[in-house]
Protein backbone atom coordinates (compact mmCIF):
# COMPACT_ATOMS: atom_id res chain seq x y z
CA UNK A 1 0.00 0.00 0.00
CA UNK A 2 2.82 2.34 0.93
CA UNK A 3 4.65 1.55 -2.31
CA UNK A 4 1.54 2.33 -4.36
CA UNK A 5 1.11 5.63 -2.56
CA UNK A 6 4.76 6.51 -3.06
CA UNK A 7 4.54 5.68 -6.76
CA UNK A 8 1.43 7.85 -7.20
CA UNK A 9 3.13 10.69 -5.37
CA UNK A 10 6.24 10.36 -7.54
CA UNK A 11 4.12 10.48 -10.69
CA UNK A 12 2.30 13.55 -9.39
CA UNK A 13 5.60 15.23 -8.59
CA UNK A 14 6.87 14.35 -12.04
CA UNK A 15 3.78 15.84 -13.66
CA UNK A 16 4.07 19.08 -11.72
CA UNK A 17 7.80 19.26 -12.42
CA UNK A 18 7.14 18.86 -16.14
CA UNK A 19 4.56 21.64 -15.95
CA UNK A 20 7.05 23.98 -14.34
CA UNK A 21 9.90 23.01 -16.65
CA UNK A 22 8.05 23.67 -19.90
CA UNK A 23 5.97 26.52 -18.45
CA UNK A 24 2.92 24.35 -19.14
CA UNK A 25 1.74 26.06 -22.25
CA UNK A 26 0.13 24.56 -25.32
CA UNK A 27 -1.92 25.88 -28.21
CA UNK A 28 -2.56 23.19 -30.79
CA UNK A 29 -2.50 24.26 -34.47
CA UNK A 30 -5.71 24.78 -36.41
CA UNK A 31 -6.98 25.52 -39.90
CA UNK A 32 -8.17 29.15 -40.07
CA UNK A 33 -11.85 29.69 -40.84
CA UNK A 34 -12.60 25.94 -40.82
CA UNK A 35 -15.93 24.92 -39.36
CA UNK A 36 -17.09 23.49 -37.09
CA UNK A 37 -14.35 24.33 -34.59
CA UNK A 38 -14.12 23.43 -30.91
CA UNK A 39 -11.94 25.39 -28.48
CA UNK A 40 -10.91 24.12 -25.05
CA UNK A 41 -9.63 27.16 -23.17
CA UNK A 42 -7.91 26.45 -19.88
CA UNK A 43 -4.92 26.56 -17.56
CA UNK A 44 -2.27 24.01 -16.55
CA UNK A 45 -4.91 21.35 -15.89
CA UNK A 46 -6.03 21.63 -19.51
CA UNK A 47 -2.39 21.48 -20.55
CA UNK A 48 -1.85 18.37 -18.41
CA UNK A 49 -4.95 16.69 -19.81
CA UNK A 50 -3.54 17.08 -23.31
CA UNK A 51 0.08 16.28 -22.40
CA UNK A 52 -0.59 13.19 -20.27
CA UNK A 53 -3.92 11.90 -21.66
CA UNK A 54 -3.99 13.14 -25.30
CA UNK A 55 -7.44 14.68 -25.06
CA UNK A 56 -7.35 16.13 -28.58
CA UNK A 57 -6.69 12.73 -30.15
CA UNK A 58 -9.45 11.19 -28.03
CA UNK A 59 -12.00 13.79 -29.15
CA UNK A 60 -10.88 13.44 -32.78
CA UNK A 61 -11.86 9.76 -32.84
CA UNK A 62 -15.50 10.86 -33.01
CA UNK A 63 -14.80 12.69 -36.30
CA UNK A 64 -17.18 15.55 -35.56
CA UNK A 65 -15.06 18.70 -35.38
CA UNK A 66 -12.98 20.13 -38.23
CA UNK A 67 -10.77 21.89 -35.67
CA UNK A 68 -10.10 20.82 -32.09
CA UNK A 69 -7.99 23.51 -30.46
CA UNK A 70 -6.51 22.87 -27.01
CA UNK A 71 -5.15 26.07 -25.48
CA UNK A 72 -3.91 25.62 -21.93
CA UNK A 73 -1.46 27.82 -20.08
CA UNK A 74 0.10 27.53 -16.65
CA UNK A 75 -1.23 30.22 -14.25
CA UNK A 76 -3.83 31.47 -16.74
CA UNK A 77 -6.78 33.33 -15.29
CA UNK A 78 -10.27 33.98 -16.64
CA UNK A 79 -9.41 37.66 -17.04
CA UNK A 80 -7.73 40.48 -15.19
CA UNK A 81 -10.15 42.80 -13.34
CA UNK A 82 -7.66 45.63 -13.77
CA UNK A 83 -5.54 46.51 -16.84
CA UNK A 84 -2.74 44.04 -17.51
CA UNK A 85 -0.42 43.70 -20.49
CA UNK A 86 -0.30 39.90 -20.44
CA UNK A 87 -2.12 37.98 -23.17
CA UNK A 88 -1.30 34.31 -22.56
CA UNK A 89 -2.26 34.52 -18.88
CA UNK A 90 -5.71 35.95 -19.66
CA UNK A 91 -8.50 33.78 -21.01
CA UNK A 92 -10.25 36.80 -22.52
CA UNK A 93 -7.16 38.05 -24.34
CA UNK A 94 -6.21 34.56 -25.50
CA UNK A 95 -9.65 34.09 -27.03
CA UNK A 96 -9.35 37.41 -28.84
CA UNK A 97 -5.89 36.48 -30.12
CA UNK A 98 -7.10 33.13 -31.45
CA UNK A 99 -10.06 34.81 -33.13
CA UNK A 100 -7.75 37.34 -34.77
CA UNK A 101 -5.65 34.41 -36.04
CA UNK A 102 -8.62 32.96 -37.88
CA UNK A 103 -10.17 30.61 -35.33
CA UNK A 104 -13.95 30.77 -35.52
CA UNK A 105 -14.93 28.92 -32.37
CA UNK A 106 -18.33 27.29 -32.89
CA UNK A 107 -18.30 25.92 -29.34
CA UNK A 108 -16.09 26.42 -26.28
CA UNK A 109 -15.17 24.42 -23.20
CA UNK A 110 -13.97 26.82 -20.50
CA UNK A 111 -11.73 25.33 -17.82
CA UNK A 112 -10.62 28.45 -15.97
CA UNK A 113 -10.98 29.95 -12.52
CA UNK A 114 -8.47 27.99 -10.43
CA UNK A 115 -5.85 30.72 -10.60
CA UNK A 116 -8.40 33.46 -10.04
CA UNK A 117 -9.56 32.03 -6.70
CA UNK A 118 -5.93 31.87 -5.56
CA UNK A 119 -5.65 35.65 -5.88
CA UNK A 120 -9.07 37.29 -5.94
CA UNK A 121 -11.37 37.15 -2.93
CA UNK A 122 -14.47 39.15 -3.88
CA UNK A 123 -17.64 37.78 -5.45
CA UNK A 124 -18.02 40.96 -7.49
CA UNK A 125 -14.67 40.29 -9.15
CA UNK A 126 -15.66 36.71 -9.97
CA UNK A 127 -18.85 37.95 -11.59
CA UNK A 128 -16.98 40.65 -13.51
CA UNK A 129 -14.43 38.29 -15.06
CA UNK A 130 -16.94 35.52 -15.81
CA UNK A 131 -19.19 37.97 -17.64
CA UNK A 132 -16.18 39.40 -19.46
CA UNK A 133 -15.24 36.03 -20.91
CA UNK A 134 -18.80 34.97 -21.78
CA UNK A 135 -19.40 38.28 -23.55
CA UNK A 136 -16.12 37.92 -25.43
CA UNK A 137 -16.99 34.38 -26.58
CA UNK A 138 -20.40 35.45 -27.79
CA UNK A 139 -23.51 33.50 -28.68
CA UNK A 140 -22.12 30.02 -29.29
CA UNK A 141 -22.57 26.92 -27.10
CA UNK A 142 -20.32 27.09 -24.02
CA UNK A 143 -19.67 24.54 -21.28
CA UNK A 144 -17.84 25.82 -18.20
CA UNK A 145 -16.14 23.24 -15.96
CA UNK A 146 -16.40 24.22 -12.31
CA UNK A 147 -13.35 25.10 -10.25
CA UNK A 148 -11.79 22.58 -7.89
CA UNK A 149 -8.83 23.94 -5.95
CA UNK A 150 -8.31 22.84 -2.34
CA UNK A 151 -4.68 23.62 -1.49
CA UNK A 152 -5.70 25.77 1.51
CA UNK A 153 -9.00 25.93 3.42
CA UNK A 154 -9.50 29.53 2.35
CA UNK A 155 -8.92 28.83 -1.34
CA UNK A 156 -11.20 25.79 -1.11
CA UNK A 157 -13.97 28.11 0.14
CA UNK A 158 -13.31 30.54 -2.69
CA UNK A 159 -13.67 27.71 -5.20
CA UNK A 160 -17.16 27.10 -3.86
CA UNK A 161 -18.01 30.80 -4.03
CA UNK A 162 -16.71 31.10 -7.60
CA UNK A 163 -18.87 28.15 -8.66
CA UNK A 164 -21.88 29.67 -6.92
CA UNK A 165 -21.42 32.98 -8.74
CA UNK A 166 -21.15 31.09 -12.01
CA UNK A 167 -24.41 29.26 -11.28
CA UNK A 168 -26.19 32.46 -10.24
CA UNK A 169 -25.54 34.27 -13.51
CA UNK A 170 -25.94 31.23 -15.77
CA UNK A 171 -29.68 31.81 -16.40
CA UNK A 172 -28.75 35.06 -18.15
CA UNK A 173 -26.73 33.11 -20.72
CA UNK A 174 -28.93 30.53 -22.50
CA UNK A 175 -25.88 29.26 -24.40
CA UNK A 176 -24.07 28.32 -21.16
CA UNK A 177 -24.03 24.89 -19.50
CA UNK A 178 -22.14 24.24 -16.26
CA UNK A 179 -20.27 20.94 -15.76
CA UNK A 180 -19.94 20.16 -12.04
CA UNK A 181 -16.40 18.78 -11.90
CA UNK A 182 -16.06 20.00 -8.30
CA UNK A 183 -18.64 17.51 -7.01
CA UNK A 184 -17.41 14.66 -9.19
CA UNK A 185 -13.78 14.83 -8.11
CA UNK A 186 -14.71 15.29 -4.45
CA UNK A 187 -15.80 11.63 -4.47
CA UNK A 188 -12.62 10.46 -6.20
CA UNK A 189 -9.64 11.62 -4.17
CA UNK A 190 -7.26 9.39 -6.19
CA UNK A 191 -7.69 11.79 -9.09
CA UNK A 192 -6.23 14.72 -7.15
CA UNK A 193 -2.48 15.27 -6.96
CA UNK A 194 -0.89 15.89 -3.56
CA UNK A 195 -0.83 19.66 -4.18
CA UNK A 196 -4.68 19.66 -4.24
CA UNK A 197 -4.62 21.63 -7.49
CA UNK A 198 -3.45 19.37 -10.30
CA UNK A 199 -4.33 15.78 -11.15
CA UNK A 200 -2.79 12.34 -10.95
CA UNK A 201 -2.34 10.24 -14.12
CA UNK A 202 -5.72 8.59 -13.52
CA UNK A 203 -7.20 12.03 -12.91
CA UNK A 204 -5.95 13.32 -16.25
CA UNK A 205 -7.35 10.23 -17.99
CA UNK A 206 -10.74 10.91 -16.41
CA UNK A 207 -10.52 14.56 -17.39
CA UNK A 208 -9.76 13.64 -21.01
CA UNK A 209 -12.81 11.39 -21.10
CA UNK A 210 -14.83 14.28 -19.71
CA UNK A 211 -13.55 16.55 -22.48
CA UNK A 212 -14.63 13.97 -25.05
CA UNK A 213 -18.14 13.71 -23.60
CA UNK A 214 -18.52 17.47 -23.45
CA UNK A 215 -17.25 17.76 -27.03
CA UNK A 216 -19.96 15.36 -28.18
CA UNK A 217 -22.64 17.27 -26.30
CA UNK A 218 -21.42 20.59 -27.66
CA UNK A 219 -21.48 19.23 -31.20
CA UNK A 220 -25.15 18.34 -30.80
CA UNK A 221 -25.88 21.78 -29.35
CA UNK A 222 -23.99 23.40 -32.22
CA UNK A 223 -26.05 21.49 -34.79
CA UNK A 224 -29.31 22.46 -33.09
CA UNK A 225 -28.25 26.11 -32.81
CA UNK A 226 -27.27 26.38 -36.47
CA UNK A 227 -30.07 24.36 -38.06
CA UNK A 228 -32.74 26.71 -39.45
CA UNK A 229 -36.24 26.10 -38.24
CA UNK A 230 -38.57 24.92 -41.02
CA UNK A 231 -41.97 26.62 -41.00
CA UNK A 232 -44.79 24.54 -42.44
CA UNK A 233 -47.55 26.50 -44.24
CA UNK A 234 -51.00 25.34 -43.25
CA UNK A 235 -53.60 25.31 -46.06
CA UNK A 236 -57.10 26.24 -45.01
CA UNK A 237 -59.71 24.10 -46.74
CA UNK A 238 -62.98 26.00 -47.28
CA UNK A 239 -65.97 24.46 -45.51
CA UNK A 240 -68.14 22.11 -47.52
CA UNK A 241 -71.40 23.71 -48.77
CA UNK A 242 -74.43 21.75 -47.65
CA UNK A 243 -77.18 21.69 -50.26
CA UNK A 244 -80.81 21.90 -49.07
CA UNK A 245 -82.49 18.56 -48.88
CA UNK A 246 -85.07 17.85 -51.63
CA UNK A 247 -88.24 16.16 -50.46
CA UNK A 248 -89.43 13.52 -52.93
CA UNK A 249 -93.25 13.11 -52.92
CA UNK A 250 -94.40 9.64 -51.94
CA UNK A 251 -95.20 7.24 -54.75
CA UNK A 252 -98.97 6.95 -55.48
CA UNK A 253 -100.22 3.39 -55.10
CA UNK A 254 -102.86 2.46 -57.68
CA UNK A 255 -105.83 0.35 -56.53
CA UNK A 256 -105.59 -3.28 -57.41
CA UNK A 257 -108.38 -4.44 -59.78
CA UNK A 258 -109.67 -7.90 -59.04
CA UNK A 259 -110.46 -9.81 -62.23
CA UNK A 260 -113.23 -12.38 -61.74
CA UNK A 261 -112.11 -15.90 -62.50
CA UNK A 262 -112.78 -17.12 -66.02
CA UNK A 263 -115.72 -19.56 -66.26
CA UNK A 264 -114.61 -22.69 -67.90
CA UNK A 265 -116.93 -24.14 -70.60
CA UNK A 266 -118.65 -27.38 -69.61
Question: What do these coordinates show?
Answer:
The protein has 266 residues and is an alpha/beta fold. It has a single domain, classed as SGNH hydrolase (Rossmann fold). Helices cover 43% and strands 11% of the residues. The chain is built from nine helices and six strands; from the N terminus they run αββααβαβααβαβαα. It has helices at residues 2-21, 44-53, 55-60, 91-100, 114-117, 123-137, 153-169, 181-186, 201-226, and strands at 25-27, 37-42, 67-73, 107-111, 142-145, 176-179. The protein has a six-stranded mixed β-sheet, sandwiched between helices. Strand 5, helix 7 and strand 6 form a beta-alpha-beta unit. The chain is globular, with a radius of gyration of 35 Å. The protein starts with a helix and ends in a 40-residue tail after the last helix. Mean pLDDT is 87; it is low at 17-22 and 245-266.
How does the SSE layout of this entry go?
Layout: H1 2-21, E1 25-27, E2 37-42, H2 44-53, H3 55-60, E3 67-73, H4 91-100, E4 107-111, H5 114-117, H6 123-137, E5 142-145, H7 153-169, E6 176-179, H8 181-186, H9 201-226
Parallel strand pairs: 2-3, 2-4, 4-5, 5-6
Antiparallel strand pairs: 1-3
Describe this protein with a few key phrases.
266 residues, alpha/beta, Rossmann fold, six-stranded mixed β-sheet, 6 strands, disordered C terminus
The level of helicity is 40-55%
What spatial form do the alpha-carbon principal axes imply? globular
The CATH class name reads: Alpha Beta
Distance between the termini: 140 Å
Amino acid sequence: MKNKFSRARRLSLLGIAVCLTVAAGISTPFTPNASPSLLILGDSITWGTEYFAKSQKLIATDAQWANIVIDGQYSRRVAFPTPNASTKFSGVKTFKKLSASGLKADAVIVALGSNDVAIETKEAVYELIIRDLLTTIGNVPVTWITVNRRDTPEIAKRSVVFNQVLAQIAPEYPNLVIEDWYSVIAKRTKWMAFDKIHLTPSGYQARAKLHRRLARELFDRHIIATTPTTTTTTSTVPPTTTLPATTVPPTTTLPVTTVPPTTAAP
